[in-house]
Write a structure and sequence with these properties.
It is a single chain. By secondary structure, the chain is of the alpha+beta class. It has three domains: about 325 residues, Glycosidases (TIM Barrel); about 100 residues, Jelly Rolls, CATH 2.60.120; about 130 residues, Sandwich (Jelly Rolls). The chain contains ten helices and 33 strands. The strands form eight sheets. The protein has an eight-stranded parallel beta barrel with strand order 4-5-6-7-8-9-10-11, surrounded by six helices. Helix 1 links the parallel strand 4 and strand 5. Helix 4 packs parallel to helix 5 and helix 8 packs parallel to helix 9. The mean pLDDT is about 95.
């Protein structure tokens, strides 16, 4: 570590006793590959910024209760030290909940195994789990503080809590846990810039610094923040902790962008007001694996897409947007052209094996029998669950109905797809001709848990078939289920013979690499599913758009032979895939 410095919050931010404006950009280490950290941070500095900010998602650092991960892609310590080596300061947001359009707002799915769990509350069960996590987390973070010779200026207590609750005892408990575990840099909260949100979500009465989040009308929002601070007799600097330079995107909707000119206008206004800021995002990233979050409107869920490009200053793959030059202009730094990103296509992979999911369930799924169907939480809590049961019909049309299911269900009866239900069609009655021994099979997908608002408390965040299925008017009993685990694919016997060709499939491709570089997988000819490359889950694809490609950083590839597995959940036949170096393939025409 370098020589210890000081950071204080007085009338101004004081760095080593001198006035200091924080010009920060958000870079999520967990959304970009480690090989891209340095390049991104160098570009952040060349844009005129002096600080990098990142959330810290609980669910990647404690994927299973009591098992902590701070290595590889999730090595937050390495990321922070790299920033310091480049002369950057750091803001950390290690609150239990982060939102960030991240699965369950960063809360781990295993919390839902506890029936008395109330997240983001001062309840014994939740705070016990937070305390266990913090004990491990702050062993990593405490030495990184500026008070210990590190670059970390301050840390967040809770995130936009004023849009969720107003339990100050909970906020104080989180603050106390941080301090007990060695945090001694200034603490802050970040909320919407209106008075009710600031009042409900802050700890200003406890001298915890207050910041606001917004992306436009800078002068008006700063006036609201200033008014709140003055009402509590504080004389603090103003800071926008999230200046939204773009926005996130959801499946089946158009891509949302923000013009570079509006970005320049509103950020210029903020700088003229002498406010500090954090650009959210400086660089976009990717919701690899099952970690995309979900919006909710009128109790209908709208999962976010795999790409978290965000229309940011730098795109998901590290290429600059027009906002990069605008930012340099605003901050009066010498305009520079960023280094070229090495992105290219590879030769078309060869299909070598295919199997149907129904023939390998015991190889890729954790199995359990039960009287009633059970939710995802008996497995990892993520991905897919395959349910199976036998129904005694009378060789006539009968009505079946799934009760309380999330998020998407593909229903097969006697090996034929009879319905795909999603969003507003979930739970609609199905009429089918049932034999005395009809086979009912249902693939249920967890498309991503809600990441914002009071829906975090909803039972719907337990995924799968939560109540059951009725046949005629009675609840049906006797179920088998497999929690599909895509990490088991490396042990899959691809020579398993197909009994009958139907349902979801797994297709294995191989291709050779003689030079490693980033690329995109073109998914425009696929249906709906996920892709695993060399054991790494790249995330969801869906023909419904708005994106039609998956970004692949060079870290996920290797010299020589590479293996790519497509888990196609529809009955579309997957016979070929291809790579592209074109970012534009992501957006539907």
């Amino acid at each position: 570590m370098m020589k210890k410095e000081t950071f204080e919050i007085k009338k101004e931010f004081l760095l080593n006793g001198q006035p200091f404006n924080i010009y920060s950009g958000a870079v999520h280490y967990f959304r970009i590959a480690p090989s891209e950290w340095r390049d991104t941070l160098e570009k952040l500095k060349s844009a005129g910024l002096n600080t990098v900010e990142t959330y810290i998602p609980w669910n990647v650092h404690e994927p299973q209760e009591g098992q902590f991960v701070f290595e590889g892609r999730y090595d937050i310590g390495k990321f922070v030290k790299l920033a310091q080596s480049l002369g950057l300061y750091v803001i950390l947001r290690p609150s239990p909940y982060i939102c960030a359009e991240w699965e369950f707002g960063g809360l781990p799915a295993w919390l839902l195994q506890y029936h008395d769990m109330v997240v983001r509350s001062n309840t014994p069960r939740f705070m016990e789990k937070v305390a266990n996590y913090y004990e491990a987390l702050f062993k990593v973070l405490v030495p990184l503080q500026i008070t210990h010779g590190g670059p970390v200026l301050m840390m967040q207590v809770e995130n936009e809590y004023g849009s969720f609750g107003n339990d100050k005892a909970y906020l104080r408990h989180i603050k106390s846990l941080m301090e007990t575990n060695g945090v001694d840099v200034p603490l802050f909260t970040a909320d919407g810039s209106w008075q009710q949100a600031l009042k409900a979500g802050s700890l200003i009465e406890d001298d915890v610094f207050v910041t606001a989040n917004f992306g436009s009308k800078s002068r008006e929002n700063l006036t609201e923040l200033r008014q709140f601070i003055l009402m509590h007799h504080k004389n603090w600097p103003l800071m926008c902790m999230e200046f939204w330079d773009g926005w996130f995107n959801r499946w089946q909707e158009d891509i949302i962008t923000r013009s570079a000119n509006s970005f320049q206008t509103d950020l210029t206004e903020l700088v003229k007001e002498q406010a500090s800021f954090n650009l959210y995002m400086f660089r976009g990233g990717t919701n690899f694996g099952f970690f995309n979050g979900c919006s909710s409107r009128q109790n209908v869920d709208y999962p976010q897409i795999t790409s978290y490009d965000y229309d940011a200053v730098f795109h998901e793959d590290g290429r600059p947007s027009e906002k990069y030059c605008k930012l340099q202009t605003i901050l009066n730094v010498k305009e520079s052209t960023p280094k070229t990103i090495d992105i290219g296509a590879y030769s078309q992979p060869s299909l070598v094996n295919q199997v149907n999911l129904v023939d390998v369930l015991d190889q890729v799924g954790e199995y359990k029998e039960s009287v009633s169907p059970i939710s995802f939480e008996f497995g990892s809590g993520y991905g897919y669950m395959f349910y199976q049961t036998r129904v005694a019909g009378d060789n006539q049309m009968e009505k079946l109905q799934l009760l309380d299911v999330a998020d998407r269900a593909d229903i097969y009866i006697d090996r034929e797809l009879v319905a795909s239900q999603y969003q507003k069609t979930l739970g609609q009655p199905i009429e089918a001709n049932l034999t005395p021994d009809s086979l009912v099979q249902i693939l249920v997908e967890n498309a991503g848990r809600v990441n914002y608002g009071t829906r975090l408390l909803s039972p719907s965040e337990q995924k799968g078939i939560r109540t059951g299925m009725t046949v005629d008017r009675h609840l049906h009993s006797g179920w088998k289920q497999w929690a599909i685990d895509l990490t088991r694919l490396s042990h899959l016997n691809w020579q398993t013979s197909a009994n009958i060709n139907y349902g979801p499939s797994l297709s294995r491709f191989v291709f050779d690499v003689d030079r490693v570089h980033a690329t995109y997988l073109d998914c425009s000819q696929l249906g709906k599913g996920m892709v695993v490359l060399n054991g790494i889950n790249l995330g969801h694809y869906w023909q419904a758009g708005p994106t039609q490609a998956l970004y692949i950083p060079k870290d996920f590839l290797k010299l020589g032979k590479n293996e790519l597995i497509v888990f196609e959940t529809t009955e579309q036949d997957v016979t070929q895939v291809s790579f592209t170096n074109q970012q534009e393939v992501k957006i539907n025409a």
